[in-house]
Amino acid sequence: MKMLRLSLLAAAVVLILVPCAHAVDIDYLVVVIDGSTSQPVAEALVKLASGEIGDYEQLTSSSGEALLPGVPEGEYSLTVSADGYDVVTETVTVDVTERRRLINVW
Predict the structure, then answer these.
(1) Is residue 60 left, alpha or beta, with left meaning phi > 0 and alpha meaning psi from -120 to 50?
(2) Residue 105 · residue 32 · CB < 8 Å
(3) Pick from 29, 44, 51, 97: most CB atoms within 10 A?
(4) CA-to-CA dists, residue 72 to 29, 32, 34, 46, 75, angstroms
(5) 54-89 in b/e burial notation, b at 16+ Cβ within 10 A?
(6) pLDDT tens across 46-81, in order?
(7) Model-level pTM?
């Protein structure tokens, strides 16, 4: 009986600690560029959406950059929209090796 309790306790500790050990939040940078002029696009809405993880959105700065801080690793739908341009939607994976995305809009 004592062995069973210890096994259950050990299993509970593993279930609690393992997800935390692998969870990494990424500061994800999206740079939006006009595909015709190669100039940065200001005030573009950048949105990362995941049904499981949540949504993150930010407007680009005058340099075309949108920093989305604290994004958990995972797969997202990235949507970029700006006045006068077509909407761009891509599937992206956010992880420690993929922290930045360059998007051309037309």
Answers:
(1) beta
(2) yes
(3) 44
(4) 13, 21, 28, 16, 9
(5) eebebebeeebbbebeebbbbebebbbebeebeebe
(6) 999 998 888 999 999 999 999 999 999 999 999 999
(7) 0.77
The percent helix, strand, coil of the chain (3-state, each to 5) is 20, 50, 30
The CA dihedral of 39, 33, 106, 26, to the nearest 10 degrees, is -170
State how far the alpha carbon of 66 is from the alpha carbons of 24, 27, 59, 95, in Å. 20, 10, 6, 17
Q: CA dist 34 to 41, 43, 90, Å?
A: 6, 12, 17
Tokens of 18: 């393992």
Residues 88 and 79: beta-carbon distance below 8 Å: yes
Domains and CATH numbers, the chain: 24-105 (2.60.40.10)
